[in-house]
Amino acid sequence: MNDTIQNKLAILPDEPGCYLMKDRQGTIIYVGKAKVLKNRVRSYFNGTHDGKTQRLVSEIEDFEYIVTSSDLEALILELNLIKLHDPKYNIMLTDDKTYPYIKITNEKYPRILTTRKVKKDKAKYFGPYPNAGAANETRKLLDRLYPLRKCARLPDRVCLYYHLGQCLAPCVKDIEPKIYDEMIEEISRFLNGGFEDVKVDIEKKMLEAAENLEFERAKEFRDQITHIETVMQKQKMVTGDLSNRDVFGYAVEKGWMCVQVFFVRQGKLIERDVSIFPIYRDSEEEFLTFVGRFYDIPEHIKPKEIFIPSQIDKALLEKYLDVKVIIPKRGSKKELVDLAMKNAQIGIREKFQLIERQEERTVGACEALGDAMEISPPLRIEAFDNSHMHGTDAVSAMVVFVDGKPAKKEYRKYKLRETAKHDDYGAMQEVIRRRYTRVLKEDLPLPDLIIIDGGKGQMEVAREVIEDELGLFIPIAGLAKDNKHNTSQLLYGDPPVPIEMKRTSDGFYLLQRIQDEVHRFAITFLRQQHQTHAIQSVLDEIEGVGPKRKQQLLKHFGSIKKIKESSVEELMKAQIPSATATAIYNHFHKDSLSTE
């Protein structure tokens, strides 16, 4: 613990609020809330912790805190700060499944659709449904009951749906908006559990039609009732009412939490969501944060009420979510919460061994690598590789691994600007200079380790730029390959010496992954560049083919071979004018033309 942290711990207030943990670069890595800031923040630096929490604490170099006037304010602030900073140690809420929903579009003449994407487009969404089949069956039923338009674009004449009585034909008729409003209201009522009322209304219409001797009409109503019963009664009822609710349960083991959420729609349990993640404070606090963030995911539509376990602060959630929060005490509703808790316990036991193994191969591998090199765990690694095609099309590539996993959004490609052909050392200097000049200029995070795909010479030229030119002190390692092009040695130190690592260790496996990945990324970029230049250089000789035409041909055919093999007609399909297409064809068939 450094002096800055010790001094701040001594003056923490006895107030509720939020705390923001920072690493050595000032990046916020964790945000939490506390009823008493002094007690909660001090707990991180006192006593013993499991390896996972100790890893978080080992990265903390500073912290900030914000005092709030209530627990509710602290929860709201915590959720907003997590959304703003996206700290790496906070719960990462991801929606692994895309559930089907029924959507009533927000158009002048609305449509009913099934979709897996919930957007902020002022449409009405209902669901989720257990599977696409259930959603489609319900949509087809509604299409039979309510004559909303079916066409994506309005045609200029009536279609078959109009003749079947399933569309009002707004394409050719003026339909009052009030009619559509009434239908949407009825559909909403139907999908929110009111299908029994709709069925009663249809039964009345059926009896009236029969009394008026309109037997065909009565038969249509009878068929509609049958469809409602078939589609809407397929699933077993789990509660005695038809409410929409989400049921939350959780379990904790060895510093990890599993949360299971049951989606109950129209009284039926139709689907569940499972999340497993590490926690760094009281389980009740982590659960509160999870539920608070759960409805930030668009697909998670907030129901009328949610059920939670008894030990959770119901009033706090109710105020934040603006939804009815219930802690069931007995009966079938209590059984639902117990079932969610039981499933969470089973889920975390089943997956815990896998979670531990994954941790060993990612963050654990970083720690093992740091131990072998006698440096801090390199949780952010940036690796570089140069590549060229017989001295031409020289390129470089950089890949980034964070916590032992590839961060592909941060990968970078470099076309070399200043380096002479065959100058591998110059290429490494150029790309290192460009990368870390930009990092300093834009205040981007610095790596804990730089890996050079090469030996001592490459490492030295990289060090000259990093230390002598830019004044940075970042560990630089080299990776050597054996004669079979497999990772063989990690070089480090001044002068560089091989670092002993077992080839079967997770640390060595991480190095192999990094070397393979940076080489793959560089080679892929090289091939793209070479193909582009090959096509451009050949096409440069053809009159009428400028940069735009080259781009069209490259995009359409993908290779010079396919362009050569194409007929004039095929070239014209790439939006090439007839005269230019003929010129291209003639250019590649000079020999055959001269012998004809």
From TrEMBL:
Pfam entry (one): UvrC_RNaseH_dom
Family matches, as CDD domains: GIY-YIG_UvrC_Cho (cd10434)
Ranges where the UVR domain occurs: 196-231
Principal subcellular localization: cytoplasm
Boundaries of every UvrC family homology region profile domain copy: 247-466
Record localization: Cytoplasm
Record domain GIY-YIG: where: 14-91
GO cellular component, one term: cytoplasm
Domain of life: Bacteria
Molecular function GO labels: DNA binding; excinuclease ABC activity
Keywords annotated in UniProt: Cytoplasm, DNA damage, DNA excision, DNA repair, Excision nuclease, SOS response
InterPro entries registered for this protein in UniProt: GIY-YIG_endonuc, GIY-YIG_endonuc_sf, GIY-YIG_UvrC_Cho, RuvA_2-like, UVR_dom, UVR_dom_sf, UvrABC_protein_C, UvrC
Gene3D superfamilies: 5' to 3' exonuclease, C-terminal subdomain (1.10.150.20), GIY-YIG endonuclease (3.40.1440.10), UVR domain (4.10.860.10), UvrC, RNAse H endonuclease domain (3.30.420.340)
GO BP terms, alphabetized: nucleotide-excision repair; SOS response
Subunit structure: Interacts with UvrB in an incision complex.
Protein purpose: The UvrABC repair system catalyzes the recognition and processing of DNA lesions. UvrC both incises the 5' and 3' sides of the lesion. The N-terminal half is responsible for the 3' incision and the C-terminal half is responsible for the 5' incision.
Family, per entry: Belongs to the UvrC family.
Protein name as it appears in the record: UvrABC system protein C
Organism, as annotated: Ureibacillus chungkukjangi
Gene name of the record: uvrC
